[in-house]
């Protein structure tokens, strides 16, 4: 017998239906736990993330144990068969659920089918599928879930997804020339979302095509005044284009005759029929985000915080919500940022721009990036200004009032980023950098650290297989200790093991621990740990002439082979003051070549020790080969 649907678009009061058995979850915090599992069906959600939802971002010290108790009680409530759906998976839990076993799964299936039909030109079928998807929505989501954090993160996502689906259906209905039929519903939605320009534009067109041109123009005037008053921004290029077309009567009202079949697409339309031709303004919607590997559950907390800021963060008029993901090379900054960017892509309705700024080794200036961004936004290349200031002004004008997501990867300085900040409005800026970029005004910074042991094991297991890791757990831990929680190093280690199935993990662990040059072992294809460390060393901030050179301090640490060092020890070694020693050590921390101090001592992990040793050897060779040294 087919399992009945599990309703979680409602989630209030939470009623779970599995295996023809209905169970009511009455305890408030257990409802939060169940909602978190449902909203992340078929994905591992960590205990820490569940705790953030249950205690609204302020979990007590006993949170992890209490969450496990709640899960145990949920399993008891669901019964033996249904409770088997909740699986324990480090570092949390996973709820197994088929696509058609939840309202949200069915909702997603209808949307996918609608897109497929639209691609084939079947607008009637596409509209029917979208209507089926929207019919599953009956109330505000998470209405009975006592967690503001969960409602902020997941509820707003669901509401945004619903609005986007409604907009897709309106596009299809307008393409089928059913403009009069959609006016009442659009009027209601625009009253509820007066600053959602996509809806305003659709209502303007529907009114105009229904012979109500004055109402359409009056709606534009009112919306423009509201945007200026509340956001300090003019209407977007898309809405201005609808207004221009109405003024020029470019898209004249038209109603199909009694024997005429509705067109399958607008007049000039061989393209997918998810939007009418009038709506394709001269400015395209770029979609440039690169693909990324599967996300790590160990990063779920950081990913949630980043997504939350990108979807709910608001800034004063004239500023753009900006997030900076920072950390050492190879720690996974780009992967985390791109996961977040893909997750919030639906809220950037006017597109996503992406640029790799090259880092400190090969920095790409804004002067080189702006022409591509302008061309991607629809500016003919022969009309792109030559002057840098004019390019920046045009870029800000094109992006003002729009909802773009701009991702700048591998920034080495704020000077690279500032000219690429989009114009004020609803856009978001996401930057990754090895530097903190503390002088980037208004930016929210997320410091990304190494993976813990559970996260490291998860990553290695995802590459070589959990069974192989489970067969040699101690050897796997030795490999991961050498990799120091650095995802890049772990991926390289996993790749080498995957390429050599005849190697045991124990054998590879011995190679790593006994290698005269450890970093030679952590190299696979075009991936290597050493280039990351070289880039950090190249960007090392130098001190004033009277101070101590941080590069010399790093070399001295390599010669000593130490795991940790204090400022007083460096002061003795270099005959300087403790303040000068601390300044040099802080420069190494800033360059990610030294761990932040704990208990007054700065730490070097296995990778940093190996690299410092290499630098010390290189300096010794240069000094030995120097002509003055040989003459001595």
UniProtKB/TrEMBL annotation:
Gene3D superfamilies recorded for this chain? P-loop containing nucleotide triphosphate hydrolases (3.40.50.300), Tetratricopeptide repeat domain (1.25.40.10), Winged helix-like DNA-binding domain superfamily/Winged helix DNA-binding domain (1.10.10.10)
Keyword set includes Cell division = no
Q: Could you tell me which SUPFAM superfamilies the record lists for this protein?
A: C-terminal effector domain of the bipartite response regulators, P-loop containing nucleoside triphosphate hydrolases, TPR-like
Task: Keywords in alphabetical order, please.
Answer: DNA-binding, Transcription, Transcription regulation, Two-component regulatory system
What does the record give as the DNA-binding region?
1-97
Q: Where is the OmpR/PhoB-type domain?
A: 1-97
Q: Sorted alphabetically, which InterPro entries does this protein's record hold? A: AfsR-DnrI-RedD_regulator (IPR051677), BTAD (IPR005158), OmpR/PhoB-type_DNA-bd (IPR001867), P-loop_NTPase (IPR027417), Sig_transdc_resp-reg_C-effctor (IPR016032), TPR-like_helical_dom_sf (IPR011990), WH-like_DNA-bd_sf (IPR036388)
Instruction: Name the protein family.
Output: Belongs to the AfsR/DnrI/RedD regulatory family.
The record's listing under PANTHER family reads:
TRANSCRIPTIONAL REGULATOR REDD, TRANSCRIPTIONAL REGULATOR REDD-RELATED
| Annotated protein name in UniProt | NB-ARC domain-containing protein
The species is Kitasatospora herbaricolor
């Amino acid at each position: 017998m087919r399992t009945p649907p599990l309703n979680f678009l409602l989630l209030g009061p939470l009623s779970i239906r599995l295996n023809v058995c209905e169970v009511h979850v009455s305890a408030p915090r257990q409802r939060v736990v169940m909602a978190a599992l449902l909203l992340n069906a078929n994905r591992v959600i960590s205990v820490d993330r569940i705790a953030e939802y249950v205690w609204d971002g302020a979990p007590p010290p006993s949170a992890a144990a209490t969450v496990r108790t709640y899960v145990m009680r949920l399993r008891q409530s669901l019964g033996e068969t249904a409770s088997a759906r909740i699986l324990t998976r480090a570092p949390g839990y996973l709820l197994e659920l088929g696509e058609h076993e939840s309202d949200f799964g069915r909702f997603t299936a209808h949307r996918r089918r609608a897109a497929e039909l639209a691609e084939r030109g079947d607008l009637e079928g596409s509209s029917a599928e979208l209507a089926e998807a929207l019919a599953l929505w009956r109330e505000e989501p998470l209405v009975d879930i006592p967690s503001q954090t969960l409602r902020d993160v997941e509820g707003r996502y669901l509401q945004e997804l619903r609005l986007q689906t409604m907009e897709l259906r309106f596009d299809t209905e307008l393409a089928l020339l059913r403009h009069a039929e959609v006016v009442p519903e659009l009027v209601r939605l625009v009253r509820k979302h007066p600053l959602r320009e996509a809806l305003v534009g659709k209502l303007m067109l529907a009114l105009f095509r229904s012979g109500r041109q004055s109402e359409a123009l009056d709606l534009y005037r009112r919306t423009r005044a509201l945007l200026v008053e509340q956001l300090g921004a003019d209407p977007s290029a898309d809405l201005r284009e609808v207004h221009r077309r109405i003024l020029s009567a470019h898209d004249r009202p038209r109603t199909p005759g009694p024997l005429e079949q509705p067109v399958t697409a607008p007049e000039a339309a061989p393209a997918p029929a998810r939007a009418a031709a009038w709506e394709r303004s001269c400015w395209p919607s770029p979609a440039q985000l690169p693909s990324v590997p599967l996300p790590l559950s160990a990063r779920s907390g950081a990913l949630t915080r980043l997504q939350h800021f990108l979807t709910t963060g608001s800034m004063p008029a004239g500023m753009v919500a900006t997030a900076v993901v920072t950390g050492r090379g190879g720690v996974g900054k780009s992967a985390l940022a791109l996961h977040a960017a893909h997750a919030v892509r639906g809220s950037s309705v006017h597109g996503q721009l992406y640029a790799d700024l090259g880092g400190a080794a090969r920095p790409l200036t804004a002067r080189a990036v702006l022409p591509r961004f302008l061309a991607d936004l629809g500016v003919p290349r022969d009309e792109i200004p030559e002057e840098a200031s004019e390019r920046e002004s045009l870029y800000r004008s094109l992006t003002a009032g729009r909802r773009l997501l701009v991702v700048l990867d591998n920034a080495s300085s704020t000077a690279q980023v500032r000219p690429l900040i989009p114009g004020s409005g609803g856009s978001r800026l996401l930057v990754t950098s090895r530097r903190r970029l503390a002088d980037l005004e208004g930016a929210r910074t997320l410091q990304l650290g190494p993976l813990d042991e559970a996260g490291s094991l998860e990553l290695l297991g995802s590459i070589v297989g959990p069974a192989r890791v489970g067969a040699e757990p101690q050897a796997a831990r030795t490999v991961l200790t050498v990799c120091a929680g650095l995802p890049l190093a772990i991926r390289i280690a996993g790749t080498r093991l995957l390429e050599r199935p005849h190697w045991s993990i124990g054998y590879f662990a011995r190679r790593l621990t006994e290698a005269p040059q450890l970093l030679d072992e952590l190299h696979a294809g075009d991936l290597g740990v050493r280039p990351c460390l070289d880039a950090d060393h190249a960007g090392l901030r130098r001190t004033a002439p009277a101070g101590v050179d941080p590069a010399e301090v790093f070399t001295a640490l390599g010669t000593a082979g130490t795991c940790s060092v204090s400022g007083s020890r460096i002061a003795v070694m270099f005959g300087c003051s403790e303040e000068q020693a601390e300044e040099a050590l802080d420069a190494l921390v800033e360059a990610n070549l030294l761990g932040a101090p704990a208990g007054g001592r700065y730490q070097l992990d296995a990778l940093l020790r190996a690299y410092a040793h290499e630098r010390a050897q290189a300096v010794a060779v240069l000094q030995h080969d120097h002509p003055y040294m040989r003459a001595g």
